[in-house]
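User: Please run a holo structure prediction.
Assistant: Happy to. Please share the sequence and the ligand.
User: Here you go; the ligand is zinc ion.
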Amino acid sequence: MVLFDNHNHSQFSFDGKRTSVEKSARQAIASGLGGLAFTDHCDFFVPEMKAAQENLVSEVFDVAPQQAEIDRVQTVLAGEGRALKILKGIEVGMHEDCHEQIRKTLKDNRFDQIIASVHYLDGIDPFYGGYYEGKTWREAYGHYLETIWKEMRWLEDFDIMGHFDYVVRYAPYPETCLRYRDFCDLLDEMLRYLIHNGKALEINTKSYQPYHGREVTLDKDILCRYREMGGEIISLGSDSHDADRVGHNFVQAAEMLKSLGFRWTAHYESRKLVQLPL
Ligand SMILES: [Zn+2]
């Protein structure tokens, strides 16, 4: 079974200074992965509070140096007889105020795969908490899903829907799982869109761990429903910002997928779908 980690951050991400393309690539080889993608952050909108607290100017990376570094590392590894497929990716932070800049970035560059995500909404970063104030868990999770749904229909030009349940990671509620049964109509629409457009549903293994003592879990009913509707394209992503998180919990995720009847994992090369047997 060959697995690809399709969601990794490198030194080119604003929050990726703890690792590098080379370190994470070497870790991927050590972990027995077949390949990995660097999908550095590209968020044109950054909430004021976060920018001030972290002294941030931008959460956008320079594509050309990142891709040149990927080429360099790929050549070095091949020279050592340890060839590894390294994909050139981007994680686009979708936001209604930045449509023009996003389009321009995607038009001006070539990527293997594009992850579409939402990190900020209502001008707020859920990580810093304010997002949840005055909202019930149902409102907070529902509004996040609706925002991805609205933005991904606008974007269209992407391959993987990133961490759809990101909003649960930092939430203050006892509900630590975004469940199919609570948002079935909306999730059905989103899954149908992915299926009809040949896009992947991401299992983001960073989400499923304890946050502030709360263990966030993935609702398998969402995967079952995807399967039932004909969905087969699943992307595994560790969302690593440290080399030792590359491929984190992938064997467990792959076993779970097999047990639910999935036969493949997916990644994209030059924007073309590649499926590998589980
Ligand atoms: Zn993300």
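The pocket of zinc ion is lined by residues 91, 117, 119, 162-163 (CB under 6 Å).
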